[in-house]
Structures
1.
Amino acid sequence: MKRLLLLALAACATTKLPPAGTAGYRLEDDERMLLRIASEQQAVIDKSGALYADPELEAYLAQVAGKLVPPQVAAQLAPRVRVLRDFRLNAFTLPNGAVYVHCGILARMENEAELATLLGHEITHATHRHSVRELRNASNQSSVVAAVSAPLAGIPLVISGPGLVASIRGYSREMETEADENGLALVAAAGYDLSQSTHVFQHLQESVRDEKVKEPFFYATHPRLAERIENTERLLATTYAGRGGGVRNAEQFAKATAQLVLEDARLQLAAGRFAAAERDARKHLAAAPGSAAGEALLGEIERQRGGAEAAAHYRKAIQLDAGSVEAHRGLGLVLFKSGDRAGARAELSRYLELRPDAPDRAYVRQYLAQTGE
Amino acid sequence: MRRSVFAGMAASAALAACATPSEPSVRLHPQYKERLGGAKSVGVVPPKVVVFELGAGGVREPKDDWSAAARTNVSTAVVKSLRGAGYDAKLLEPAADVKDDLDEVRLLYEAVAPSIVYATYGQKFPAKVQKFDYSLGDVSKLLDRLGVDVLAIPYGSDEISTGGRKATQAVGMAVAALLGVGAVQRSGVTFVNLAIVDRSGAVVWFNVRGAGGSYDLRDLASAQEMVGRLVQDLPGAHK
Amino acid sequence: MRRLFLLAAISLACATTPKPRWVDASTPRESRSFLLQLPEGWMRSNQEVTVVATRDGPLLQEIFVERLQMGKALRNTKKTVAAGMMPQEAAEVIADDLVSNPVTKGLQIVENAPATVGGTAGFRILAAFKDRDGLKYKEVVYGVLAPPWFYRLIYTAPERHYFDADLPAFEAVAASFRPGSEKPPPEPPLSKAPASAKEPAPDATGN
């Protein structure tokens, strides 16, 4: 959906506020208001059905965020990371430290160092009080025109003032650059491999290419992706010159995100993005080789795009797990369509035994009647 | 957002309704006398009130501190006006177990109220104008738990022009006066509606007022005046 | 929900124009895209090819009927309803279009069953979702497969009070539905062949 945000900013001095964890950090009145509304917004998002609930994954994300946030900062602003069921590549942070990351961007990542880069950026938005700074910038400027004409990807919004909208849609270029740079400092301090830091931008660039669109709106106020990569590479070559090695934790990351990657595959498939769905399903299987759900999903992808390998994937799923509901269903449908009535009858009957309240049971009963059951 | 778009249309319709004072603004259920007749106690639902700042560049920004003040003022004004009309009115402060149910009713009202304005003031669907019939679903159990006979549900929005916008307006009006043409940036619109809902959930009484620039819900006296005008058409109200 | 935004925008735009936005539902349509009988006392939008009808206002109940050409893109999914699909396959595509709508995150498919509409094979989906303000809605979608056309009859209403109250009226509308007999316009000479439910050829990035 095309987003139209015309933001004409008159030049103004950004109000400097000491970040969380530093001397002089003290909440101000307008900030308290933002935090109160942010909590309301958080409650709405959490009740909306948009969350991907996985306590183990959340614990892992909390652990990574915890490595990035020094104790003196955590005492004043403790970030909390949740995942949204959305295949688009996006993440945002509310002023109260609630970080929301889409399935899509997590599923693209390869290791914990990339995740740390993303979280470092997002956490900086909260610790460096970008929302209240954005709010004050907007109030200071007499010619701010913000006409937003499209919903933000289904996130239920209770707020639409400049400070809070910016927390979701993107801050000024200055603040985005600060988030990139301070985020990188957090990643370095936590001992991660900095060479992975540009990968997040590269994933975003690939996504932009895949979608064949101009850089999506939520980057409109972000410096362009190429600029961000250049800026990060410059920092690696100067501030962090000579620093090699560092933690990647690719294996732990893959294990922690394996189920999420499968969920992203399902979302991609529903959206008709077959190649992305297959990429995710195979990535899931690489991290979880015995996954019947992964094989069944590959079967679904093949079946829905008319591929010839659907039955093979379903059969493999059933070998891995004889109770795989999706595999019995999918194989039954493939066999029915190919004219193997006996085979279809066996699989579809098994499907209904395993899931008698299946939402599509009426179709299945029709097919069973046609197979002479 | 859909609701805000409808609320905007409702505001326009409310203004239009007030522009034709010969047409009553109140909407009555066909059996409102029977349904409202025995009601003594009224539970006033904490209202949703949003106050926007209208800036010179066309920015319409909700101001949360202004909205909080306006909410308090509208609540106070509604309770006072209903008491003045002879009802035993109280602002509801529901316990946790009731709050979710009340929120569900209030959420539906936020779809019903703009629909009432849309269909019976704005577009004027003939069947709805002829027979006013809107509901929030059965609320009898809820009213029993709250200990009231009927619910009163207010809703409001207000727009406050900034200095810059007012200056622009003044210039625009001067130009329009000179040339007889030109669109003038509108002043802020104040818009309040109020519904009385009986045990069956039927909206038995509904009224809406809109005004361009002459009220300010952040001010208690102004809110009271506007709400007072709203409630004056309630049976039993003193004029 | 997108159509409600559009409706509202059109309504706003039309606020000062003389053409009525809504007409009595019994007002005949000139378009023969499909035939149906709307309930007495309802209003329908004053347009021809697509029908939008309501009694109390579109936020409280809405019947939306449209005709789509098979093989053409849907709004939220790249999948398409193709000629030759079984009703279940078409229902899968429509369910995925609903589920992929970014405005109704958390939408659940409650039921999905074969159905006959206007004597034509199709399906019936029941879905539940919350709107952006948190109000619970339910939606019934009938899909009708009549190549080269695909028809959708959609009923949406808040779960509280309105959905059950007006569902019988919608079912009566669905029972009265008959597909139209128009043929689609010819494809321009240089256009691609119509898309099918199969994935388009991957581009260089493999997507």
2.
Amino acid sequence: MAAIEILDLEKSYLVGFWRKRLKLALRPLRLTIEEGEVFGFLGPNGAGKTTTLKLLMGLVFPTAGTARLLGRAMGDPAVKSQIGFLPEQPYFYDHLSARELLNYYGQLSGMPAKGRSARVEQMLERVGLSASAGLQLRKFSKGMLQRVGLAQAILHDPKLVFLDEPMSGLDPMGRREVRDLIQQLRSEGKTVFFSTHILSDAEALCDRVGVIHQGELRAVGAVAELISETQGKIEIIFYAQKVPAGLTSLGAEAGVSGDMVNAVLPEEQQDAALEVLRRERLKLISLTPVRRSLEEYYIQKLRPPEGQNKDEQNHEGQNQDGRNEDIRKEKAVDRKGVGA
Amino acid sequence: MNPGPTNARIGYIAFNTFREAVRDRVLYNLIAFALLLSGAAIIVGEISIDIERLVVVNLGLTAVSLFGVVIAIFIGIGLVSKEIDKRTLYTVLSRPVRRWEFVLGKFLGLTGTLVVNTFFMAIGVFLALLYVADKFEKMDLWVLVALYFIVLQFLIVCALALFFSSFSTPLMSAVFTFALFVIGSLAEDMRGFARTTHGVAGWLATAIAYLVPNFSALNVISQVAHGDPVPGRLILYNTVYALLYSAMAISGAVLIFQRRNLK
């Protein structure tokens, strides 16, 4: 069963005081995430990641579309008791201690009184806050609040966990712990949907990622596939003091490091390059296809589509009127479709 | 996991609201109240003849009402808006908590705080009465009724503050609520004025006089200070009126909050 089915979820806001304009926060989004999957939602700030999460949590209402979580309509209280959510830069009731807050959230989630306290202590231990569990949250640092946030998100043993920028505000040690936590959730069979703009985290943790930009889902795919796609180039490393002239004439970009040469050249020149090495009696160390990193993939997806020049991009960013016209047209078509 | 019963969730939210008010030192107002009342009782005991009881009841109950109204307005306007601004609401509404449950829980938490606050102030009033009169009399029972009416006033003020804050800024909500409290305290005069006015002005005055909460009917301070009894019918009418008016304001707040996008 799909854990998350997002069915053309769309959100636009009216902005402006006198002249109301429609601002599109999320273009129709269609996405399915299977149970047990760790999914990374990537995108720069303001791309629409938090809007998507808020829509799924019922904090804002969609302009169009819907979503199903664990096979039920989003917003169904029965589903919400099986969901954990960590908002971006969370803020909690600062008059409460971490222990009281977790107990309160446990009550709201419908956790039975029996065993709740033990579970709260277990969670505090898990996020490393046992020593400060009795301290009021107003005395907590940003990193400690983030840990409380993680504890409250998994307190009631949810099947589906949404984390909005879970690494934000954490030191390297804290980030490592969050990574371990997500790995642990995966091993427990939980579904994790997390947004981030830290690509190394996504690369290390996710089964699949989606790239969102300017409210539009630009790509979705398995991390392994995305980063294993070759770029039609090979990398050759061999022992030599200088770059052989024959290799440069094949179009290689080469550099010398100590007694090794590293050369990148088009895939179709592979045989010719090996012939040059043989001729020069140079010892080959390795020959590998060039793989792109998730970062390269991400940056490629954020680039404007071909044919769309920079001016158009700027225009799109600054003036939504044209796009609003498109939205109105699309909606009119949708309405006709429904009517038919 | 079973999301649990609705009334339990409302109870948890109400208790958390009460706990927040107590920890934010809202009940510290009791110290100011105690100082005011004990000072007044001592002065009145020194200078007046036979009107000590009248002065203590008038002053005590008016102070109970004003202290409570100020708390009801200033906490009431922030009950929901503060949770939206600070985003504490995100982790509550992502749980199996319906928006109306949240609003009702917050309302009950604040009214609970005010009831506890009023209880302690009532003890202060009776102690001051005992100080100036040496003993309690049967007519002092009517002071309890006046205190009950004051609690009914708080119910309406809290509900109005919550209603205005569901669509307006905290400052404007405070202004609207306080304005309605003042106008509502003159509701009986407005009704009298409406009866003597004709035409469109008369129609308008009648509409306003009956739309604003009738706080003047809930104010029997002067009556009980003179030792006059309060009719049982008025107690019943006032109870029904306050509950209905609060329910309407809370329903309005819920209707608006149900549709609100949280920024």
3.
Amino acid sequence: MRGGFFGNLLPLFVVFAPLSLLSFGGSNSVIADIAHQSVVAQQWTSQREFADLFALSRAAPGPGSMLAALIGWKLAGLTGALVATVSFYGPAALVVFLAAKLWGRWRGSAWHGAVERGMAPIAAGLFLSGGIAVLKVAPAGLVAWAAAGAAAAALLYWPKLHPLPLLAAGAMLFGLANLLGATM
Amino acid sequence: MNSPSERYEDAAPPLAEVSLAALFGAFLRLGSTSFGGSSAGWIYRDIVQRRAWISDQEFLVIMAVGQSLPGANGVKLSVLIGRHLRGGIGALAAPLAFLSGPFAIILAVGAVYTRVAHYGALHAALDGVAAAVVGLTLSTGISAVARGAGDWISVGISVITVLCVGILGWPMLPVILVLAPISIGMALLRSGAARG
């Protein structure tokens, strides 16, 4: 295995920085590219290892794309994890910052306000769509729809309720059902 | 037209004075507890509903602006909310705080995962967590749509978005590109009518 800066760290940057700028609509849109780079193009991980790292990044808190940190870690330890993380989040963050700065210059004009009022209902619709998209592919099927509906109702009814107890309840109910052999 | 805010003259005045330490602490906690990947739902719940640092309207605008730019949603929202509350230094501090918790946790969890990955109940429990997180996302969307209730054009635009992207599964970017000019045009017409 090659070592040092050019061996591992530079390729991590070269792969993750462009993906950062291509991740329109969130980092989920480039997961397929990360898989291709990691398994086929760069051969950083095997297919099996990639699937494990992916599942892991979904179970842990924070952005699902912490996958980048895990790949970097596997390749070059802590330094690799840091380089992959900064490469994947940094460029997009900079673009977002500059866009916000530019956008703010037009505050106060009539069309600036119209853009903000016009975009708000679309954002609301995208929120609901994101939830529905996840439910469509949920392994638990109708049970997942029911559980998500119940959680949404509880959160709407008690606006100050912290979501973590609901997550714990979901984990316990589904985990117990699995242990008792219920078919879902 | 000049805005009255003196610190960041291009931003709407925040609802609350938020110290840099409070901003960092809030996003550190958010990053470390936002299980399931719906960063926007968690951030909305904490920053808008619980802490009331920014308004519903401002959050949705930030969300909509963020949708048309590249990047992980949680990081985009951290940059934009951090900038809104504390300017350039906030735009750096909020995403750093948001990412540092998950970064440490995922490396720690990675070390033990391979030993427990074969338990079926663990996967089922993770499905349960995922379902509850979807509930969080849905409740956020429902609050946002309900905010526009009475304004039938806004509600209609939301419903069409859900139909195209959520139900029919069309790609998001073209849908936004078609709906955005229509929705913005309607808003422009209405503000013109209100003035004239």
4.
Amino acid sequence: MSHTAALKSEASPALSRKRDRCLHAGCKACLVVLLIASPAESAIVNIDVEAEPAQLLSSYNLFRDARRQIPNEGVIAYDLNTPHFADYATLHRFVWMPDGRSCNYGPHGEIDFPVGSVLVITMGYQTDLRDPLLGEHIVETRLWMRRADKWIGAQYAWNKETTEAKLAVAGEKTEVSWIHHNGRKHHHTFRIPNRNQCAQCHEIGDKLVPLGPVHAQYLNKDYDYDDGTLNQLERWARAGYLTGLPNDRDEIPRMAVWNDPSTGDLNSRARAYLDMNCSNCHRKGGIGFTSGLDLRYDQREPVKFGIFKSPVAAGRGAGNGRFVIEPGHPERSIMLFRLNSTDPGIRMPVVGRSLAHKEGVALITRWITQMNYPQLDQRQRKVDRRSSLQRNKTAIMPGQGQR
Amino acid sequence: MNELRRRSRLRYNVCVTDVNVVREFGGLFGSHNRPAIGRGFPPPGGSTHRIREPGAIFVIFPGLSNSKDELKMRLLNTIPERGLMDFLKNSFLLLGSAALIFSGGCADSSTTPGLPQTTSTETDGAGHSTTNEAVQNSEAVTASTVKEETDVVSFLPGPDAQKKILEELILAEAGTIFQFEEGTFEFTDGLSLTVDNVTIRGRGMDKTILSFKNQEAGAEGLYITSDNVVVEDIAIEDTKGNAIKSLKADNILYRNVRTEWSGGPLSTNGAYGLYPVSSRNVTVDGCVAIGASDAGIYVGQSINVVVKNCRAEYNVAGIEIENCHEAEVFGCEATNNTGGILVFDLPDLPQQNGHNVRIYRNQIHGNNTANFAPEGNIVGTVPAGTGVQIMANSHVEVFENDILNHGTSNILIVSYLATGKDIKDPNYYPYAEAIHVHHNKFSAGGDKPDNDGGRLMAAILGTPLPDIIWDGVVNEEKRVDGALPVEAGISIHDNSKEDGEVTFGNLGGLPSLVDPGNARPTRDLEPHREPLPSVGPVE
């Protein structure tokens, strides 16, 4: 095992920086870790997606170094424009495909994964969100495997030493802590969702689907690979993982990054945030469509994505709000009430989060505050005036009606 | 897993039955010495609970008399033990399945004496036990003949119960019966089920209690998204959100299930007790729902719905049928809710146009609990003291109910326009049409009109409010030469009142609602006496 080999593997920028430091400190420590983490140097990734998920993650040989999420040969790290919020966990994503297989780029930027593909997402807690070099507590790795007829998912819980992860069908709880962006220490019970809870977010119609990487608009971004910065789709194409990219790369759609104003205006960033975090349920065929709410990025009809939309079966999830979104009034909008709540009977999304995402809430608050739908506003005001007229009249003459 | 799960090789839940049971199988008649066999899941609405083991093979042995003892004797005489074994073997070969259940509709579903059966229960000491209801001397029928089996997996309460139950439910195989034994099970996580043909069964709604008092995750106590599921003889208490929700779960049966928030009617209680939605063939039978901050029993956007013999109390809405097609509620008691039974239709939803609903032979009384729903909810508009409220549905028949002692109104019939909410959905039909109210019994009320709506009605009609109130909002396009056909309006006849004459008030339509000061209400029932045809039963 040489350092050159290690450097060729794909990893997140934070991790490659970590490795740099490792190199500065001398080779031995690094080498020892690598050797411990990968028992067989020649081990290659080996995943039969049609078989039942393995009990131990190590049997798949996905990582050269799991503790630092350094992937094995053929496993490419990637990222999403606007990832979902997972209780402040750091997300490490990877893709792997069997030899000779590749995704196809569809007419609207759909990424069609070939049978045998595996998507990997690892959740970890950095010791200090302000400094990735201080290390990370790896908690869970989720796999998406593309079978001939469907996608299936499997979740693995890591042991404390990050030497092995076991299949966790029923989910698990792990105590984590980290120092937040503001320097405060946070303690949290991270919940690995159980298999059915996974389906709650990922089921559309009767099928399970991954959230982000199935569309080019989420993948269309630069990534700092070890050998330089490159567009992710470009990288996948060069690795033989993607065919059919349009010659004119500007044709490829790009989703705004929720917290990067240079990538889109407030509206696009807020809609991107809702698309990623909410729309897998709140769309036709999703489990949240019983309310009729559709939070996909492409939904253009205001009432469908919540403007002046009355709640249906929200129960106390409605708080005292009358509408999912009341333009100009974040404090009266049910959407924000539910995004802000940590109560299991109120919070949205219902799984995958038990902390409030303050920064995401701030984004949606700004979005609703600045929102302007003059015609709808006027219409609602008219309706309200009429009801308040009723109220006033009845208040003036209680019980004096005709007999 | 496999060590945890000990399967029963065979489960002979033998019970004799009578002619009525066979009738419900629609032609699966056997003669008295040749039983008929069938497989599947009988349609809801029947009276034969015991034969609803999903996915099972049913052996029907029709008797000619209703005497169960006689039937038992006949069964034993016709198929002696040896012959029974052969018969079972043949059945397996014929139907390619081993899940064989002798069943019947009699109350004593226990083993017929004399038939080969033993029941053994083993416990592994960690809150998990397996029940083996196997025929010990039936070596002729072994696993090799058997392609699939009916599992009975039983659970005992204990500190490790949650993880085991979660895991077992997730990995369930079709045909499994999950038996929750007596006691209180504590959960911090919601349970969920995504596998078809599964039964979740307790030992009685007061004996097996799933408590979610300390729930940290999951928007429901139990969340079901698979078909042909039975939930029975169990209680779900103090969930943070809904007690049980089933989504797109066809052929679901809730029987003798209790959902309750033990702190009484509070707005911090979960929204719904039993909450089947977007499903076909929903049966809620003999259930009890207490304390929901929205509806105790709520069936939404479903087709073919039967709610019967249930009790709903101290909820905002006792029983609510919303955006459903073909539904009936009968033999239920709704009391001490804000509103007893609601039949609503709302806009902006995947299924709307609620129609063909029957509400009959229910006891609906004293629903005067102050509305404790969070403000934004549609049921937050229901005035306390409402017996039955019908909104924006068509072809609703309300008959032979006792509707007694309501402070606002015994029956309230309104269009969606009466809510004062804006309609943005072009496909939504906001009118209440072909509402048929007959042969109900009322008692005096209407003396305590509640909330803005109640006060508005009082301002227009005076107090006490009448027994039956209609907002009078109609689709003007449906008038024929100025007259409203009865199908576009309401029909009210043959109702009675304990202590006087049945009273009626028509608020006067949209002009009255918009400008109550110049409202033109009427109290004349004469134009509405023409009967409507009956709404047929749910198939």
